[in-house]
Write a structure and sequence with these properties.
With 201 residues, the chain is α/β, with parallel strands linked by helices. It is 30% helix and 26% strand. It contains 6 helices and 7 strands, in the order αβαβββαβαβαβα. It has a 7-stranded mixed sheet, with helices on both faces. The N and C termini lie far apart (55 Å). The model is unreliable at 1-7 and 49-54 (pLDDT under 50).
């Protein structure tokens, strides 16, 4: 027998779906982050690095990396029964940046992953989101063997505004990544509420 709505009790909840971008430099861990939390098999558009790409693909610090994202990574995570995040990992290399505008369309916010060994590689992503007023936070991916620095030192090095959250994380660990995603949603909603108040006053 098919149960009617009244027999089931409450109707099923239609979850709110939000789009979050994951950006940062080449080899910083974007694909790893999406894969660590996605409850579906992540869509990946990775290609092998080739000799032809050596002049433009700086692999210093990530010498073991042999693939790169050429379009996007895609994953999904349910944070609560009524909240689902769609994650879009952007390509890190400059020659693929033309795709960022398409990926950023409709995004609530973004995570900019940073690697302290190559901190300058995330400047372009920070600048991109600042210029477009897309709320973002910086997640410092704590690679094994990388030097650890105080958060305030990293914030100064990146010249971040005070309101931009900065978190230490491990892109391989599901719970660590979930903390980052919860934080970026909260930050984006706070920024949206602040904007609404500014418009109405």
């Amino acid at each position: 027998m098919i149960l009617g709505r009244s027999e089931r009790g409450k109707p099923p909840i239609e979850p709110l779906t939000l789009k979050i971008l994951v950006a940062g430099g080449f080899g910083v861990g974007k694909t790893t982050l999406v894969g660590a939390v996605s409850e579906i098999r992540p869509l990946r558009t990775e290609e092998l690095l080739t000799e032809a790409g050596r002049p433009v693909d700086d692999i210093s610090g990530v010498e073991a990396k042999n693939t790169t994202t050429v379009a996007m990574d895609f994953g999904r995570i349910t944070l609560r029964e009524d909240l689902v995040l769609y994650l879009f990992g952007t390509p890190g290399q400059e020659r693929f940046w033309f795709m960022w505008d398409e990926l950023a369309e409709g995004a609530l916010g973004a995570v900019v992953l940073a690697d302290t060994r190559r901190l300058e590689d995330c400047f372009a992503a920070i600048d991109y989101f600042e210029r477009r007023s897309i709320p973002f936070l910086v997640g410092v991916n704590c690679f094994e063997g990388a030097a650890r620095y105080p958060a305030d030192d990293i914030r100064r090095a990146l010249d971040l505004d005070d309101h931009v959250p900065l978190l230490m994380c491990d892109a391989r660990e599901r719970e660590s990544v979930k903390e980052v995603l919860v934080e970026v949603v909260q930050h984006a909603m706070t920024q949206a509420a602040r904007h609404r108040r500014a418009v109405t006053t």
